[in-house]
Amino acid sequence: MTDWQEIEGGITAPKGFLATGMAAGLKPSGAPDLALIVSDTEAIAAGVFTTSQVRAACVDYCRQRLQDKASSRAILCNAGQANAATGELGLQDAIESAKLLAEALNIDSDAILLASTGVIGQRIRMDALRKAIPQLVNTLSETGGQAAAKAITTTDLVTKSIALETVIEDRPVRVGGIAKGSGMIHPNMATMLAFVTCDAAVSTALWQEMLTRAANQSFNQITVDGDTSTNDSLIALANGQSRTSAITDMNSKEAQKLQGMLTAVCQHLAKAIARDGEGATCLVEVQVSGASDDEGARRIAKTIAGSSLVKSAIFGRDPNWGRIAAAAGRAGVSFHQEDLQIKLGDFLMMENGQPLAFDRQAASNYLKQAAAGTYLKEDTVLISVCLGNGSGTGIAWGCDLSYDYVKINAEYTT
Amino acid sequence: MTDWQEIEGGITAPKGFLATGMAAGLKPSGAPDLALIVSDTEAIAAGVFTTSQVRAACVDYCRQRLQDKASSRAILCNAGQANAATGELGLQDAIESAKLLAEALNIDSDAILLASTGVIGQRIRMDALRKAIPQLVNTLSETGGQAAAKAITTTDLVTKSIALETVIEDRPVRVGGIAKGSGMIHPNMATMLAFVTCDAAVSTALWQEMLTRAANQSFNQITVDGDTSTNDSLIALANGQSRTSAITDMNSKEAQKLQGMLTAVCQHLAKAIARDGEGATCLVEVQVSGASDDEGARRIAKTIAGSSLVKSAIFGRDPNWGRIAAAAGRAGVSFHQEDLQIKLGDFLMMENGQPLAFDRQAASNYLKQAAAGTYLKEDTVLISVCLGNGSGTGIAWGCDLSYDYVKINAEYTT
Asked: Which of A382, A404, B268, B318 has the fewest other C-beta atoms within 10 Å?
């Protein structure tokens, strides 16, 4: 039982947010490539960024900005050029982009946050950006969430958008989000981006804490090919326009409700990214329980979801529990192998660290059906691993490894 | 300039070692599947084993044995059944195998070390093993190195064997080695095995230290698909039959010479395993320099060599420096991106953290030639990364990611 329901509107569902997207001529293809999200009023801003040592200019820019002032009015995102590994000139471009948008919106430039996705080593096409910004601002609307969701995509096959609503103090409180993925495993492309809007009133410190918690149970638990990108960014704005009283205590009922909704939005987007992974035919969900702590459980879940052997076995519809056991064993988390239990869907394959007899054909059929989305009406393959009696649990999401993954990532000889 | 030269004979090149291999009926295919290495006299024994929490019975057996007594007379290795995740019964099988061999060789059973490779969850076919052991012992010979090298393979396309000789105190001192790989990425198969023989006289503590050092610069620096196995074992015997005085000081000239030769043997075998990785068309060598320490350099080198994006770009002959930079950045080792320099073969692609103009077609041709082995007569793609002014250096080896990798690992639906 959840306290909230899904609603229409994506990032423009929460009160006081406008968005838009357009084709600004940044992508050679001419597809939409420039997105803008604006809050009517100053919003509390929180961010989680790539841990990579090789970072895009926008990542360094946002980190600095959020250090100086954890509030914002707008997020500008361009697709086509990642503006990563572009040095001082790339940073100057980022700064100019913020200035240009600030003038067009008639706000301070330090109220702007930036994100980029595209080819590493390429600077933003500033000439095109300069031309586009006035028009971009003119097309802002309360129904622009989808246009923004489309404009941030690169090789994504589908746009990724969601909005949830709950009730606090008899008022509707909403969280919306959009994301782009799969591009991170496109040649030279390198980005997982997600933007979240919220009309709850929440304190700065709490909002950052909530976002970090949500990221650790969603975006930080997905893996397509293990390649953390130079541009990964998750930015969340909370503008308080639901007019509810400020949430300041993490233990309050309201905070728990908001945390749950924020985490649900991030998990929905994270799963959508994994399901849309390059060449993927299905989403793989790995549930780990019985670990000594949650961190260890999450680590093992992610290691299994990221194993090339497990991923290619699932693509082959092979109920290969040995690879799941081997991946769990190498995650760097200690457990007693004699306690290990492994389930694939409803099929128990290993118990007390020893293999069980099971119907291989039926298990293979489960994989076929799950991948085809004809099992439980969802294209999700479920792997459940229990390590023992510990209270630690964790979930990770990934996808299978197909010929198309190699095709997409190999056959772009420059 | 090295102090040693390559010679014939593999693991039976060092004095006082016998070996053999035979088809004992453990593999359904009827291929050779049982190998034995024996030293005429008690040999100092050292081992490095998988760090996985899910281990084969032979790994637990050898760890215990080497703790009790760091010497050995013989190594028995079976292929076909990994005897991993087989619990108490699997351990009993291992103990019985050692007893059977000890009786046939008329030595103490605690002088036997064991290794297994094959299907996880399957116990050794003891009936076949019991029948085979007397014949196995009868076929031991001073020229049996190749037969042993063949009998430990699983999906390997080639056997992996080497022997080196140097001179200490005017006497020849030899190190020989055999290995099997690629099987670790075969469905259900899960093993990297290597056995080293040496006729130098060396102290127990020093021999283990030397082997650990050698492993850290060889087997621990290769990656085919990142899946550490349940059975990985490296075992080295030194029997002192070169009749040179005992080497006890790591700083002595003799110790340095022996360490160099041992490391060279391990690197030769490690590179052979990477080159023979499932579906691989070439060996990829990643050299990292300028790091603050060697460990960080090795970690970055291994992260680049293991990146699915880098691997598939190389398969596509795409000089994709952006992926190399991204992989270096996510290795968890801190450096200043503005110092980053990246070379592919002789092509300088990034300097001071910024992209350089280079001849893409020529660079792609380099990849084609290197992969075809027509470049410098070696099928090795060289990636060089410099992080700055630090003194830390490291090398890692991997292979490209091809359709065949997915094919081999997916199309074995059980």
From this structure: A404
